[in-house]
Amino acid sequence: APGSMEAADEEKAGNGRNGRAEGPVAAEQGGGGGQLRGCWGFLRRNALVVLTVSGVVAGVALGAAVRGAALSPAQVAYLAFPGELLLRMLRMVILPLVVCSLVSGAASLDTRSLGRLGGIALGYFLGTTLLASGLAVALGFIVRPGAGASALNAPGLGLPGGVPTSKETVDSFLDLVRNLFPANLVAAAFRTYATEYKMLLRNTTSGNVTWEKIPVGTEIEGMNILGLVLFALVLGVALKKLGQEGEDLIRFFNSFNEATMVLVSWIMWYVPIGIMFLVGSKIVEMEDIVLLVTSLGKYIFASILGHFIHGGIILPLIYFASTRQNPYRFLLGLITPLATAFATCSSSATLPSMIKCIEENNGVDKRISRFILPIGATVNMDGAAIFQCMAAVFIAQLNNVDLNPGQIFTILVTATASSVGAAGVPAGGVLTIAIILEAIGLPTNDLSLILAVDWIVDRTTTVVNVEGDALGAGILNYLNEKEKKDKEQELKEVKIEAVANSKSEEETSPLVTHKNQVSNTTSTADPESKESVL
Description:
- It comes from Circaetus pectoralis.
- InterPro entries: DAACS, Na-dicarboxylate_symporter, Na-dicarboxylate_symporter_CS, Na:dicarbo_symporter_sf.
- It is a multi-pass membrane protein.
- By secondary structure, the chain is mostly helical.
- The protein has a single domain, classed as Proton glutamate symport protein.
- Helices cover about 75% and strands about 5% of the residues.
- It contains 22 helices and 2 strands.
- It has helices at about 1-45, 45-65, 75-80, 80-90, 95-110, 110-145, 170-180, 185-190, 225-240, 245-270, 270-285, 290-325, 325-330, 335-345, 345-360, 365-380, 380-400, 405-420, 430-440, 445-510, 510-525, 525-534, and strands at about 190-205, 210-220.
- A two-stranded antiparallel ribbon has the order 1-2.
- A hairpin with a 5-residue loop joins β1 and β2.
- The termini are far apart.
């Protein structure tokens, strides 16, 4: 027994010595393991962002690798098929997402705050769009993108010859108002009202024959999102007014909205694959990019510079001035929707991922994000305003036309107003450029040059569009939280005052003491005295 005890003591001492010797090594191993765990945790938290950015890079590499294989148009279509699936899935959830989120958002806000938030949002949207238009016109005069491009012609660059038919400015604005009030809600989910023109032969009194252009209303393919937005907002306010009777329908729209967001979270994991094939197929489709960039390089540079200044400096400054918070940290949580916007060129298709990321990563209140973002995706088009104004200045310089102050003012107002009705789909802004050109009296046949580089400029256009919506939602969320805190502070102060007053009243008021005395006497008295008191 003594021998075994000595052996145990020696073993303990040895263990102690080993423990002291191995301590630093274990600490080093623990530190390395902690770093690995931290890195793994970061990757898990930001897996979607990393995969999306990797998808864009892989798409560029895929397009560059396959470009030399001389694929036929059918093979390019097969290559773009996974990307087409992504666009179809995102467009599938736009209708339930817009309608349900706006109904539940409008119903969850009281009328006063709804009007206040709506007013601030409208002011923000109009203000930033006007700033964007002014920036584009100023850059157009500084860079002069159309000065050296006078010798360009569309056939030489292999550009599309078809230019959209131009509409009268008045008819364009009337169509905008008509689409706000759709005659059929079901048809509004897939059709939009548009004015076309029919030429009629007229005999004049002098015997001459003249052609007269008569506007004719038609329905064209495409979701009338303006009409759906207005209807959903008004329906939400009406349900709120109903009170108890409208609660069931509000709960239905809330549940529908949450279910749609679950679908969006599933679709988001397919985004990196879809983006890779969308970008790759677009690079393969390009014909002669070197000639295109050298010929229209100044226009592309001026447009992208305008987007960079507005999206990278002006909008973050507005956010910082309103909230005193770091705008770039806010935008860091939105890398996935911004990459989706870059790849899809569609504000509407980016809406599902934007709502999901702005709520989960940036903590924006659901009532704010689901109320403002669908409206912003339809109304707020800062990037489109820059693109349209730059195109108008470019075509004016191309035709050696010096713009006077009246024409510049017309460009600013028309671009701001027409960007409201611009479709949130790829190349949606090209149609509105035709309206601007008609308004200032410039020919529309040079629009084929804009169409040629639209696929490049449209990517940064969409990124700036969705960035403006997101920062607007962040500003409104900050203002809403600030008002809520102020109200809570006021309520606390009122409660404290009320408690203090009640105490002093109990101590000093003769009525209260008299009341207590009467009650005490009646309780101690006999039944007869009670009757007499009564």
